[in-house]
Amino acid sequence: MKRRRDREKNISKFNRDVKMLGGYAYTDQNIYSAVVASKKQSDGILKAIRSQKFKKPLKILDVGSGDGTYTFELYQKLSPKKIVGFDYAEEGVRIAKKKIRKKDAKRINFLVSSVYVVDKKIKEKFDVAVVRGVLHHFYQPQKGINAISKLADVIIVAEPNGYSPIMKIMEKVSTYHREHEEKSYWPPTLNRWFERNGFQVRKQCFFGIVPFFFPERPAKLIKAVEPILENIPYLNRIYCGTNLIVYEKQT
């Protein structure tokens, strides 16, 4: 079967994860480091959304929704009017759709779509788009950002921290990172790409020291000192694993 030109190779790896594990590896509740790293990101994203003081109920777009784990988390925590998740990994979308309860069917939806054409498939606007750990998987990130920017005036991005030398090492030595084409962008580069689409940075912060896939014992030790390291100005840009940015369209 000929591979579509706009289809990233890592998609086949995520589809494989779902078939083998029943979901994505980073949402596995049996891996301590993945659990604490995920919670850290979730807390940061929820705090960022709530700080915007949107008129309720919200309409949320979940970009790269994967197996739906974080989409349902947003739904449960924020009770939006509507939430739509999309992903190019068919197996992830299939699993996510199976999780929808009948009573929620009108408020939650998932679809298979490339980010590059999602603005053609989805014709409505959202209050906020959440782009969690997905931009670095795009082969054409600027094209992806352009499409997303047409669907929401507030975009919350959580990406691997490109300032972190630890992150750069993980990208080279971790089998998971290599197979799934994990990488991290220099934060000013990300900001510049959004600025080209008419957005400005409203908030940017760096947090999270525990890597997603790390032995449990050292992960617990790191977790114990995480609050201290996160609050050291400038140095936290080196230690922390997540770069979270709130972008808002300029009027």
Strands side by side in the biggest sheet? 3-2-1-4-5-7-6
**CATH superfamily heading:** Vaccinia Virus protein VP39
Largest sheet: 7 strands, mixed
Q: Enter the CATH topology name.
A: Rossmann fold
Tally of helical segments: 11
Tell me the structural class: alpha/beta
Mean pLDDT across every amino acid position:
87
Low-confidence stretches: 1-5
| CATH architecture identity | 3-Layer(aba) Sandwich
User: Number of DSSP strands?
Assistant: 7
The CATH class:
Alpha Beta
Describe the structure in your own words.
42% of the residues lie in helices and 18% in strands. With 251 residues, it is an alpha/beta fold. The protein has one domain (10-249): 3-Layer(aba) Sandwich (Rossmann fold), CATH 3.40.50. A 7-stranded mixed sheet has the order 3-2-1-4-5-7-6, sandwiched between helices. Helix 1 (10-21) runs parallel beside helix 4 (90-98). The longest helix is centred in the first third of the chain and has 20 residues, at 32-51. It starts with 9 loop residues before the first helix and ends with a strand.
